[in-house]
């Protein structure tokens, strides 16, 4: 970083980071020509205007599994694939501002190395993988800021998961944006600015793994690595209509990931996949766990990836709302449509009564446990550089009753968390013996629910976390999948609805179909803690019920 | 508790608790006649002087498995077994002061109920089980003090593990002592006084599950429930020559257990078995996990008990010392003898270099994380009643650099803990690839080590925790098993030894064989985190190498 490391002017540090990003993008060749100006609201057609037919074919025509197949068979070179995704990622950057860095030279060198091997080796041979920036990465010139201005230029070591994927033959080629503090369900920082939704630039891409989402939503990536402590994989994946999976904590190692509040154990984040197809979710888990990461990171659960197979029709509980905030009409429609498809496929569909389970109480516990120091460490990092505190940072730290807890208060909230988790688990267990006729006799397999109160919000409006964060409180695995898009005809405002509380009013008043043009609507499948494999198996069953392969 | 609940005089509360204990013991019939006075140093012959031949047969002639077999076949009534163990427990109480309460009426009523069942049912049908007091227990007259005077008379709910064992047909008949604060490796409290070693009353029974140990060492129980956060199962089991197993945390539920510092998650305690035979350890685990306790307590790891079988000779690493404190001569001899037996049985025996792994550093982290509040909550509980702070309470809270940590200091120590754990795991993993000729090529299966620097210490001298607590820091499962007894001829003082540090000098100077007459000497088998089944399998292999069945 040279002299700027000692500068007090935060903008100078930002300039350094942006210059590094811009220099990495300037390497793209051939350079991108012919993009419209101004950019249209929806970025989906932009790749067609600048990429070659061959590049479009490579980046659009294959699932991850298919691409891996032709790479392994050497029907296509790693370098050609890599160059196509590098160029498409550069288009995505122009469209959505999703990159912190394009690894042009490094990726092409890696691709050439893989192409020169006598035999293709590794479960991810030649696959381009994009990575949320704060996961870090080894390399001679790699720094990781976590979008803190204070940390711009920060050096670090390797990342266990990335090392595993590298050993399996992947190509890292793009690093992606995240919001200030990592704790927004949008993606905006003073370092890289705002990342927007590739379907509608007036909407957020979601967050905190929003750079990944925007890149995936443009097919500038088909397989990415995100992280989730309150919705940070599921929310952005949902907002761009791709797949995302938050596993139970302690299945995937976060060793090497950079973040604030290291050593905090009240609520843990999880690393997980974001991808354009469902099969990639289990591929990610299988590759990560095949390496037995628990032999290096002993905090992990020793359990190989163990695919689950249903031997009877699923019993699905639908959470129509969470008892606090009513979902927007398109989300309610998505729930109805998928529930109907499941029922038509012979599954048992029951209601999940989140109101009785007091999700609001869950949030009161969770929000404190996100910031047991009252946010002092993170606010201190912001103050250190002098960068402005962004509105959604203030929202999550200053508007949720967060406090610097004494040790005994900390224990009290942890005990409340544990009691809440036990109550919830026992409620789930009790579904096996419930006597209500509609509940049947077997235990609920998964909950089908919204991953957000609606489609991607207008910017700076993602102020209700309950639809994702509740499952972080419980440490339940959750997968999101695309269902539909907002449709003005099908999804009118419900003018008769009377909001129940302040958050409900805020959310209700946000909705008008014309604000959400082209916005994807996704759903979430949630399972009991540690039942990761079952969640992905259920997702497969549900999608098959929806007529997907 | 009547009026004494509001009294400020702590001795009144103690009188109430002791009266309750004494009243429970007064129910024994026939009453115990013929015990010598004064009691001899070694209590092992006392049962013979007061129990009937039939009672001695029932309590001495059967392993737990054998007793379960004849109970299930109804070759003996539950009531007869229960009465025999109740009477023997009463002898143990006189000999060692190990009980907080004898459940005379409750146990006999339960036994009659089980005898009246048309068919014997449950994996533990008719088995008398003793329980460390702080685990709590349901019942109309049951209170649990955790040996805090402030909590005398405290009421509480049920205990998930006990409920499971109850559902499997056991009989609870005795509740046992634990030390003030639960954080001594001895057993002494202002509520019940001191529990002594059944082999030598001038020595400790160990702690904190010392009442269980003393009772088991008298065969006043053959199957008990203890808990371990720093050695509290393994140390007392070792000191009386019985078996004990500390599983990985989050395999056995502690739901319903009472203790101070609820909600603290820096270092967790584990519940586990203490028993007179090895097979009981896996029986305990199998019964506990067969109930799928994770369906009620979602903090538990979902993993049934999955017995492990070795398909090649074990690779055992012997920790000859921990790099801080040199074991006493009888312990060093036990290690040599068992290592030789393993080698003779064809196992690969290598050295474990704990000095290089800096166990002292481990203790510096661990001791802080036992008391993140500087011990304020526990000291406050003591102050509340006015009971005196015992020397070993002062030792562990006030002499180890314990402090009331700020939130950021807490995180820093947790991060240090996690880094230490990762370092240790990586060192273990590296044993598979070590190039030293003696290391062979496969990974070390288990570590064979001391469970204490020596046999049971004279009272108030258990001031070095490293041999057990280190494995709590790492969350590694550990089982202890009896090996030998102190032998003045074989175990002379090593007068040439020059202590390395203050603790080493304290420990070295403690040893003289004449202080340890008849004292059992045990060893410990430690495995990697979550490899609980492998540890018990290894224990079986080692004992077979020693010529045991």
UniProtKB/TrEMBL annotation, chains A, B:
EC number: 3.5.1.4
Catalytic activity entry: a monocarboxylic acid amide + H2O = a monocarboxylate + NH4(+)
Keywords attached to this entry: Hydrolase
Sites where the protein binds substrate: 182, 208, 229-232
Positions of the UniProt region annotated as Disordered: 27-46
Active site: 132, 208, 232
Gene3D superfamilies listed in its UniProt record: Amidase signature (AS) domain (3.90.1300.10)
Molecular function terms from GO: amidase activity
InterPro entries in UniProt: Amidase_CS, Amidase_dom, AS_sf
Annotated ranges, domain Amidase: 80-536
Pfam families: Amidase (PF01425)
Similarity-based family: Belongs to the amidase family.
PANTHER family cross-referenced by the UniProt entry: AMIDASE C550.07-RELATED, AMIDASE-RELATED-RELATED
UniProt protein name: amidase
Organism of derivation: Aspergillus steynii IBT 23096
């Amino acid at each position: 970083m040279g002299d700027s490391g000692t500068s007090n002017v935060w903008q100078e540090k930002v300039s350094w980071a942006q210059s590094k990003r811009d220099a990495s993008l300037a390497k793209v060749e051939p350079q991108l020509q012919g993009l419209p100006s101004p950019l249209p609201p929806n970025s989906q057609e932009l790749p067609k205007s600048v990429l070659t037919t061959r590049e479009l074919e490579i980046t659009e025509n294959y699932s991850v599994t298919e691409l891996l197949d032709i790479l392994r068979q050497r029907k296509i070179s790693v370098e050609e694939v890599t160059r196509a995704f590098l160029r498409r990622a550069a288009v995505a950057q122009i469209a959505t501002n999703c990159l912190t860095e394009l690894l042009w030279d490094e990726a092409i060198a890696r691709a050439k190395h893989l192409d020169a091997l006598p035999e293709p080796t590794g479960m991810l041979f030649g696959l381009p993988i994009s990575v949320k920036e704060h996961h870090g990465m080894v390399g001679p010139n790699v720094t990781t800021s976590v979008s803190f201005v204070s940390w711009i230029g920060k050096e670090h070591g390797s990342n266990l998961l990335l090392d595993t994927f590298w050993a399996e033959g992947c190509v890292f080629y793009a690093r992606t944006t995240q919001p200030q503090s990592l704790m927004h369900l949008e993606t905006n920082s003073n370092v890289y600015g705002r990342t927007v939704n590739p379907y509608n630039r007036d909407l957020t891409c979601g967050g905190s793994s929003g750079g990944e989402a925007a890149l995936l939503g443009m097919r500038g990536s088909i397989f990415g690595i995100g992280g989730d402590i309150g919705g940070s994989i599921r929310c952005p994946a949902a907002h761009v209509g791709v797949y995302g999976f938050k596993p139970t904590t302690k299945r995937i190692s976060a060793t090497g990931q950079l973040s604030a509040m290291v050593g905090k154990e009240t609520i843990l984040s999880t690393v997980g996949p974001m991808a354009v197809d469902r099969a990639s979710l289990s591929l990610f888990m299988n590759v990560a766990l095949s390496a037995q990461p628990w032999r290096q990171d002993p905090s992990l659960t020793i359990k190989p990836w163990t695919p689950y197979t249903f031997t009877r029709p699923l019993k699905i509980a639908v959470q129509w709302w969470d008892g606090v905030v009513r979902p927007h009409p398109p989300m309610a429609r998505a729930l109805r449509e998928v529930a109907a498809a499941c029922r038509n496929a012979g599954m048992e569909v029951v209601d999940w009564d989140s109101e009785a389970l007091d999700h609001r109480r869950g949030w009161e516990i969770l929000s404190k446990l996100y910031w047991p120091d009252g946010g002092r460490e993170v606010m201190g990092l912001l103050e250190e550089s002098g960068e402005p505190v962004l509105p959604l940072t203030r929202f999550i730290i200053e508007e949720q009753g967060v406090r610097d807890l004494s040790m005994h208060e900390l224990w009290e909230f942890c005990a409340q968390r544990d009691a809440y988790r036990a109550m919830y688990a026992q409620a789930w267990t009790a579904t096996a013996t419930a006597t209500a006729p509609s509940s049947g006799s077997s235990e609920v397999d998964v909950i089908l629910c919204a991953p957000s109160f609606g489609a991607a919000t207008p910017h700076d409006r993602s102020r209700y976390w309950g639809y994702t964060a509740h499952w972080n409180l419980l440490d339940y695995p959750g997968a999101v999948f695309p269902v539909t898009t907002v449709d003005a005809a099908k999804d009118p405002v419900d003018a008769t609805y009377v909001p129940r509380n302040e958050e409900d009013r805020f959310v209700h008043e946000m909705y008008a179909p014309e604000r959400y043009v082209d916005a994807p609507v996704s759903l979430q499948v949630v399972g009991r803690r540690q039942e990761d494999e079952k969640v992905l198996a259920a997702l497969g069953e549900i999608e098959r019920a929806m007529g997907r392969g």
